[in-house]
UniProtKB/TrEMBL annotation:
It comes from Glycomyces artemisiae. This is Methyltransferase family protein. One of its GO terms (biological process) is methylation. Keywords: Methyltransferase, Transferase. It comes from the Bacteria.
Length: 249
């Protein structure tokens, strides 16, 4: 199958979550300065953040886990390119079943593997070693959406799927972790993310207007754009929480 047979998959995204380049770089800097010996990224995708942190912390042992084999392969290729494949392993695994603690636990955009945001932080907290950190990224509501607004988002979106930012932070604090940094993305970070997600399809459609799959690809792109621009835009935010566990007494 040639590359023209279907659109690329995540070909225009550096990582698979809404984040500005400066914010991503700062997360890499903060995590590298923390100098964890062990790192686990649950729902890592191709693990761009994980690769960048592992590269910056000599001796750190890292594992990225995901259920998507194609994304894991992209991660392995990246780790090999960076010369860190001996320290960074990409493993096919169900995130909710992972039990091995680490100094730095990362879970960004994969909370749904555990259920709601609150269930995710509760399940992830015990994986953080004493003195360790959790970098948790997930959707937040800017305000609670109405039923009519929910109906414009992607199918089966529910109001209790995400929390308001203060409630998410409270849910994290209730697990025994403390908030070291609370970030919430600007609208342009979501817009860039959705644009770059859709760019695979739009670029392919430009080059392949008469392809037998063009109609299907165009319909998928149009539906996704509607869920974004007529659906979650302005209602769904995204938060990154850097949470710390106290050292053992
Ligand atoms: C929105 S992406 C975020 C990827 C990555 N954390 C990032 O920020 O680039 C969510 C990822 O979670 C993975 N995922 C979903 N359910 C999972 C599960 N039960 N176990 C492991 N990974 C899962 C998906 O395959 C996908 O790669």
């Amino acid at each position: 199958m040639t590359s023209q047979d279907r659109p690329a998959r995540y070909g225009h995204l550096d990582c698979n979550s809404p984040i500005a380049k400066w914010r991503f770089d700062r997360q890499v800097d903060d995590c590298a300065a923390f100098a964890p010996s062990s790192i686990v990224d649950i729902g890592c995708g191709w693990g761009e953040l994980l690769q960048r942190i592992t590269e910056r912390v000599p001796g750190a042992k890292a594992v990225g886990i995901d259920s998507d084999l194609e994304l894991l392969e992209r991660g392995r290729a990246g780790a090999a390119r960076r010369g860190i494949a001996d320290r960074l392993e990409f493993v096919e695994y169900q995130g909710e079943d992972w039990t091995e603690p680490a100094d730095l636990v990362i879970c960004i955009g994969a909370a749904h593997a555990f259920g709601t945001s609150a269930q995710a932080v509760a399940a992830l907290a015990p994986l953080v070693k004493p003195g360790g950190r959790l970098l948790f990224g997930d959707g937040i509501w800017q305000r609670t959406p109405t039923e009519a607004e929910l109906a414009g988002m992607w199918p089966d979106t529910k109001a209790d799927e995400w929390l308001l930012l203060p409630d998410l932070v409270d849910a994290a604090v209730a697990t025994g972790l403390r908030p070291l940094r609370v970030e919430s993305v600007e609208q342009h970070e979501w817009d860039d993310f959705e644009s770059e997600f859709l760019m695979d399809k739009e670029v392919w459609l430009q080059a392949n207007p008469g392809h037998e799959r063009a109609e299907e690809v165009r319909a998928a792109a149009d539906a996704h754009r509607a869920w974004w621009l007529r659906g979650h835009r302005g209602l769904l935010g995204f938060a990154y929480l850097t949470l710390g566990r106290q050292v053992a007494l």
